Structures are given as structure tokens and as C-alpha cells.
Amino acid sequence: MSVFRVKLNNAGQGQLDIDPTTGIAFTTSEQRKVYVMGPKKINRLLSDGDTFTDSNYWKRFAYPQVPLDQAFIQTITDDGSVYSDVESENTFGVAGSYTLATSYNDTNVLDFVTTHGGPATFVQIRNMDPSIVITAELNGDTNLTLSIPVSTAQVFNAGDLAITKVRLKSASGTPNAQIIAAVKSAVNS
């Protein structure tokens, strides 16, 4: 999920909220709010200066996708995901490499829902070590664990299991593991 800021007061609109009797800007104004059709054809009320987290649909209203004098959205952070009006095209890859410990810890967790807004539709967990078995815990459920033998991979294809989170640990030592996943862009509006 990316973070955006509403910027209705761009270079060509600087005088919309000046009180003509005092010459001082109003603190709030209905002129600084606009309804915009968002993903899934839902109207969203945008107020100048507000920040929100959503899919990269909103980049189509931000510079450099549109000229600076027409942009009314500013991209604060970009998660690199794609957004298409064709819903089946809204899938992007996520990958990570991990050096494991003998217990679960915060550095060996890939949380798809928190980070990307939805579960992974495909996941491959690869044990890169030629001599140490690793353990994967799925979806934050301690009863949903599996061992991945040395130098092998476990694959969950689309339709097998919606995976929201993967935590990894090793049987001993500090082996390396790799996760490759496909995540569908989520929409908050």
C-alpha cells in the first residue's frame, strides 16, 4: 500500500481560500474538498492536506503521470505495486531473503496483509542451505507449520491456500531462506 497526500492547493490554485474582506486565508473551506471517483467506482471525499493509504490507482492523479499544474495528489511513499482497471492484472511480485535463527523473530516474517494489503496468491519458500532444515509457520497459526528439507522449496499455487503471513526459523545454525510471492493489489476505497 502506498501513502498519498491530497494537494488541491497546487501552483495554479493558490488563491482559492483567501477571504476578500481581510486578505487572510480561511482555516477551513469547502473549496478545498472534492469528490473523486476511486477504484471500484466508489466516490471518495478528498480534503486538502489529508494523507491516506491505498493502492497505486491514485498515482494517476499525481505528478509526473499528469502535468504538475494539474496534479492534485502527491505520492508520499510508493510500494512499487501496479494498478490496472482490469482487476486480474493487479498482481505483483514480492521477494525476500532471510538469515534465520533458531527461534521466530521479527526480521524473519513476511506479513502480506500488513505490508501489501492482502494475502499472497502464490508463495514459494526455498531453503537455501545444503545441511540445515528450516521451519515455516503460515498465517500466524502455530498449528500450521511445515519443515522444508535442505536445498528444497515448498510451493503454494493460486487456489491452494491464501497465505497472509510467513514466519521462518531454523533447526540449528543460521541458514538462509528465500520467499517469492505473488500479491494482488488491495484497494481501500
Low-confidence residue ranges = none
Classify the beta-strand content into a percent band.
Answer: 35-45%
User: What CATH first level of the largest domain would be assigned?
Assistant: Mainly Beta
Q: Got a strand count?
A: 13
Terminal CA distance: 12 Å
Averaged pLDDT: 87
Q: With helices defined by DSSP (H or I, 4 residues minimum), what is the helix count?
A: 1
Give the SSE order as H and E letters.
Answer: EEEEEEEHEEEEEE
Rg calc: 22 Å
- Class from secondary-structure proportions: mainly beta
The CATH topology of the largest domain: Jelly Rolls
If you had to describe this structure to a student in words, what would you say it looks like?
The protein contains one helix and 13 strands. The protein has one helix at residues 112-116, and strands at 2-6, 33-37, 43-47, 51-54, 73-77, 91-99, 109-111, 120-127, 134-138, 145-148, 153-156, 165-170, 176-184. A four-stranded antiparallel sheet has the order 6-13-8-11. The chain has a four-stranded antiparallel sheet with strand order 7-12-9-10. The chain has a three-stranded antiparallel sheet with strand order 4-1-5, with no helix packed on it. Strand 9 and strand 10 (145-148) form a beta hairpin. The radius of gyration is 22 Å and the shape is elongated.
